[in-house]
Here is the input.
Amino acid sequence: MDHSLSSSSIISLKSPGSDSSSVCSNSSKCFSGSGHKVGSSGMENNKAKILVGDNGYVLEDVPHFSDYIPNLPTYPNPLQDNPAYSVVKQYFVNVDDTVTQKIIGHKNSPRGIHFRRAGPRQKVYFEAEDVHACIVTCGGLCPGLNTVIREIVCGLHYMYGVKKVSGIIGGYKGFYSRNIIPLTPKSVNDIHKRGGTILGTSRGGHDKSKIVDSIQDRGINQVYIIGGDGTQKGASVIFEEIKRRGLKVVVAGIPKTIDNDIPVIDKSFGFDSAVEEAQRAINAAHVESESIENGIGVVKVMGRYSGFIAMYATLASRDVDCCLIPESPFYLEGPGGLFEYIAKRLKENGHMVIVIAEGAGQDLLSESINSMDKLDASGNKLLQDVGLWISQKIRDHFSQKSKMAINLKYIDPTYMIRAIPSNGSDNVYCTLLAQSAVHGAMAGYTGYVAGPVNGRECYIPFYRINEKQHQVVITDRMWARLLSSTNQPSFLSTKDVIEDNRDEEVHQEHCSDDNLVNKEISYT
Here is the structure.
């Protein structure tokens, strides 16, 4: 991942809204982008907000109202009078609190990249009666969407006294083509028990000008956007347009992807629920395969570019003999190929289970199927059904070449997994995400997503979420644990291992402190 930053705006780690004369602290190395001095009232457009401190300390901060709207009034945080928080020893997060991205180091290691810690601040930039918040869900379904909606509404109401919260119906296009609905704690009380999203969703429909016009016309001043990497790219564009117009409107993202492919954060909500549900399909495939001679169960799970669901469900199940993911190329024919391994396992055990992520083997599939590179409304490549394809390939091989009678059952639980309600673990996680986003919005932060880094909730700038996708590292220990569990071949040549290690070295070099100063970050 390229973390190098150049021509960046560097600010001191001070409470937002502090006097511009204290932008650079004495203990910090201060830089300004392209020769422009940056103060609390004028962060130059499209620049990262960076502080570089002693011992290799780097803070990748998020935008704040005070960066582009001067002299805004602040108000005491109502949480200090909230009975629920009376037992809390420290109500508010210290303004200097940050969370490190990399927790493993050596005695001489630089302190590295940090993010601003999430949580309530002593001063807020909104009075409750002035807030009109809205929530929108975009992209595919995921367990936990309704829980996030519920906890944003309840968090705003019970923690900050906000009464006016609206739901945008049908994704981004709902801002300008559909009516909005009022959301109250009563109306969202039990929605966390349902799958899907009560607001509806869609892909595409992102028209920056129409969306911001609608936000302005409706008097909305807090926008909570729940969606994946494509949705958050759209959110960053909306934020930039709002900032260009000088509007006091928060844009806060809650990252959502069932595939767990969003970078920086520990994991995405709904992932634990997806893994748990995928195990049910794997168990069914195992029962089917072991109940008949030479039985093979093939289970396809979600994972367009990242195979985390397949990997974790395989590790949790322990009934899987082979796991195929997009990050790990494999081949069918010849020594060490998939067909040879299947024959070996059938001779040894009499049955086997294969789990395959939807994005695995697409290169092999496109060779045998004349597929066109079509995209969906979100810009994702439309994938061929690799589960059906590989099931047929296995049948053809063993019936025509191997002359071994097999019984193959194919299970595709994809949309069943997406549609379930979130489990207990994800419900708690969704609560933390939603409340962190609310605290940040009330404190005047904007242009961020809320998410955990090393177990601590943080505010992360949009550009970090949109840099690249989080993927399984097939030379990492976790993938090695899977290989030792399934006993499958790695399908890697020595050349593949060398190249993957080289990529990892490049990634670590880009994360070093020496390279953290020279890349202009654009939100558009």
